[in-house]
Design a protein that fits this description.
Elements (H helix, E strand, L loop, with lengths): L5 E2 L1 H8 L3 H8 L13 E2 H10 L9 H23 L6 H31 L4 H25 L3 H10 L5 H8 L1
Helix pairs in contact: 3-4, 5-6
């Protein structure tokens, strides 16, 4: 995790996939971030400055269209930096995790309802059925929690690192105190 990545103008231009000329033109404007002694720029500051420089009016000429392209490239770079620094998770990562998680959870639920519960509930009174169902439901919820916190999903690990979600039941209990 690099909180303040620094790059030269050439490295920034390469990363944004633009020529150095338009980047030079943006970095000489009033309020642009200044380089350090090693002539490197804070990438986050440059991205924020260029993104803020987006024209409010409609794109009426080629210069504004090119500036808009640079702004869009900076916004994309900002998303990549946030993902690398665990500040953001892509929707596809969350979708993959949730799909796998929900399929497993539904399979466990069907197995319990179709296989485990009928044998446990056979011949019980209404009060005993309620207790048995509550015990089974508590076990099911514990199994789902175990699945969530033991998942080997990169999206979940990223969410845990980014937002400080506890990983184990012990960490979760400690965090609740």
């Amino acid at each position: 995790m690099t909180p303040n990545p620094r790059e030269t103008k050439s490295q920034l231009a390469r990363r944004l996939k633009i020529h150095r000329g338009p980047l030079d033109a943006l970095l000489v404007q009033l309020g642009a971030p200044a380089p350090d002694k090693a002539k490197t720029y804070n990438v986050r500051e440059v991205v924020a400055f260029v993104t803020a420089a987006q024209p409010e009016s409609a794109l009426t000429n080629l210069r504004e269209a090119r500036l808009h392209e640079v702004v869009l490239r900076c916004q994309k770079l900002q998303r990549e930096l946030d993902h690398d620094d665990l500040l953001a998770v892509s929707i596809s990562e969350v979708d993959r995790f949730m799909t796998k998680f929900l399929r497993t959870t539904v399979a466990q639920l069907y197995f319990g309802v179709e296989s485990e519960l009928p044998t446990k509930l056979e011949g019980l009174s209404a009060g005993e059925v309620r207790q048995a169902l509550r015990a089974w439901a508590d076990g099911f919820v514990d199994a789902v929690n175990a699945q969530i916190f033991s998942a080997e999903s990169e999206a979940l690990r990223t969410l845990v690192k980014a937002y400080g979600v506890p990983v184990t039941p012990e960490q979760r209990a400690a965090k609740q105190l």
